[in-house]
Design brief:
- The structure is a single chain.
- This protein is mainly α.
- Helices cover 83% and strands 0% of the residues.
- It has one domain.
- The protein is built from two helices and no strands.
């Protein structure tokens, strides 16, 4: 029986996805806060849409990163 080992290339790829998600996790609430501070201007819509996009991207990269890490460790 051969023992399975961790795939280092896949592990690096998973860590890279998680590294992409980290700044987005901090940027999303900040941009959404800016949107709700500027209720009287057109920047409300611009910042709100940008904040939602950053939020979706953050969760997408988190999902891909954890999925890739688990694939590297257990497949």
């Amino acid at each position: 029986m051969s023992q399975k080992h961790t795939d280092p290339n896949l592990l690096k790829k998973g860590i890279k996805y998680l590294a992409f998600s980290l700044p987005l996790l901090f940027l999303c609430p900040y941009v959404l806060t800016l949107a709700f501070i500027n209720k009287e201007t057109i920047f409300l819509y611009l910042f709100f849409i940008a904040g939602l996009i950053f939020g979706f991207l953050a969760f997408y990269f988190l999902y891909r990163g954890f999925r890739t890490l688990l694939a590297a460790l257990f497949d």
